[in-house]
Design brief:
There is one protein chain. The model has no long low-confidence stretch (mean pLDDT 87). A hairpin with an 8-residue loop joins strand 6 and strand 7. It is built from six helices and seven strands; from the N terminus they run E-H-H-E-E-H-E-H-E-H-E-E-H. By secondary structure, it is of the alpha/beta class.
Length: 171
């Protein structure tokens, strides 16, 4: 899955570092690789080892068919609303924790998402890997919940002496 990140401030730079420097762990937790293809920011960051990922024009992200998820880390209402709206209109999923954006424009964004075949407010069950840190970040895992659920199904089958058919993927 290829993603784009909007903003490279305190939150955005932290997200970028996690996606870039912990890619294997992120892929393991997500169940698939997550590639950070673009970072939108008006500022220059020439000394960063990933400076080649920076763009200043949102249309680069909007028009790239490889980008399936846009991560909004700009904060505030504008220009975040305009970018999120355009991302949804182009069929891209959006991840944000921008409370102001959702409070002020959430209803309109949900409507746009649904018009473009995107699900809003999907509920997921996560396993908490790490409690809230000093910045309020909680580390969650969707994959580990799935693994635990599958293990539980196997254990029930074992208890019932059921026959289990499996495919061996590797030895």
């Amino acid at each position: 899955m290829k993603t784009a990140l909007l903003g490279h401030g305190t939150v955005g730079s932290g997200v970028a570092e996690i996606l870039l420097y912990s890619a294997e762990k992120v892929a393991a937790d997500a169940g698939r690789p997550i590639e950070l293809k673009y970072i939108l920011d008006l500022r220059e960051f020439p000394d960063l080892p990933y400076s080649d990922r920076f763009v200043k024009d949102f249309s680069v992200i909007e028009n790239d068919p490889e980008i399936s998820v846009v991560i909004e880390a700009i904060g505030g209402l504008f220009p975040a609303y305009d970018f999120v709206k355009r991302a949804l209109e182009s069929g891209k999923s959006v991840v944000t924790s921008n409370k102001e954006l959702i409070a002020e424009k959430g209803a309109k964004l949900f409507e746009i998402a649904e018009e473009n075949g995107l699900k809003v407010g999907d509920e997921r069950e996560f396993l908490i890997l790490k409690e809230e840190d000093e910045e309020g970040v909680i580390t969650l895992s969707l994959k580990r919940v799935s693994l635990a659920q599958n293990w539980e199904k196997l254990d029930i089958a074992r208890q019932n002496n059921d026959t289990i058919t499996v495919t061996v993927a590797a030895l």
